Structures are given as C-alpha cells and as structure tokens.
Amino acid sequence: MNSAGSQSQQDVIRVGQLEIRYLQEASGGCQLGCFELRVPPGSNVPPPHSHSENEEFLYVLEGTLRHTVGGETKDLKPGECRATPRGVAHGFSNPHSVTARALVILAPDTIGAKYFRDVGAIVNAGGSPDRERLVAVMGQYGLKPAAPPAS
C-alpha cells in the first residue's frame, strides 16, 4: 500500500509472521493511529488482551480474520468491520487458507509503531519468546493480557 506517500518496504514491522505497516501515528495534534496488519494462515498471534486507554476499529481488506471481542468470535470477511471498546478483551487469528489483511485504527493511538518494534525485538530473537518480557512490554504501552478462559 503506497497511499501514505513515502511508505516503503523498510516501513514494514515484522512480529513473527505478522506484518505491521503504520500509515498514521498520533502526532501534531492528531490522536488517531492507523496501521495495516497482514496475518498469514496459522500465524502465531498476540494473546487476547485489553487496553484501557484506547478503542480499536478493525476493517478487513482481504482474506478472513477471526476476531474475538469480549468472548464473542466472528469470522470477518473483506468489507466487514468490528470495534473494540476500551477495556474489553479482544484478539484475532487466521485459521483460514489465505493471508488476511486488515486496517486497524486506534483512538487515541497510545502505542505507536514503537510498541510493535519492541515486541518484534523479543519475538524475532529466536527460540520461544520470553513471556515475562512480552508482558512487561505490553504493560509499558497500556496493554493487559486477558485472563485465560475458565475451564
């Protein structure tokens, strides 16, 4: 996607198999953030989490993305969208056969591209990611892992 002017391959942030390309970070009085998210089939994805400082809006561009908000799971296809209120646990996955691509808008954007770079440094280091370090980084940016579902 080249609609943001000087976006290039160098702007792709890799977190494991996921690709994040920030199109707009909060700055200059604008509090919105927007990024493109690519999720290949069967990718390792972040654990369900919540953030109390912002809302999230997800719009699927290609493929099908499985999206859970507050315990309700839906498979979203191109043109479908879903919002996550502040403080509500949410997550996503791609158990389907083609790469999913979505636009994610954060209001306000309290994490920015730096969050994904910091998480990528841990996830991409090789071996099993250090869960304690991941949780610590999530906390620095106001993300809280959701409690595991009751069995």
Could you list some keywords that capture this structure?
151 residues; mainly beta; Jelly Rolls; three-stranded antiparallel beta sheet; globular; disordered N terminus
- The low-confidence parts are 1-10
Average pLDDT across residues?
Answer: 91
End-to-end Cα distance, whole Å, is: 42 Å
Number of domains: 1
Q: Total number of β-strand segments?
A: 11
The secondary-structure class comes to mainly beta
**Alpha plus pi helix count:** 2
Radius of gyration: 15 Å
What share of the residues does DSSP label as strand, in percent?
35-45%
Question: What overall form do the CA principal axes indicate?
Answer: globular
Tell me the CATH topology: Jelly Rolls
Topology as a string of helices (H) and strands (E): EEEEEEEEEEHHE
CATH class: Mainly Beta
Briefly characterize the structure.
With 151 residues, this protein is mainly β. The chain has helices spanning 112-123, 131-140, and strands spanning 12-15, 18-24, 33-39, 49-51, 55-62, 65-69, 72-76, 81-84, 90-93, 100-107, 143-145.
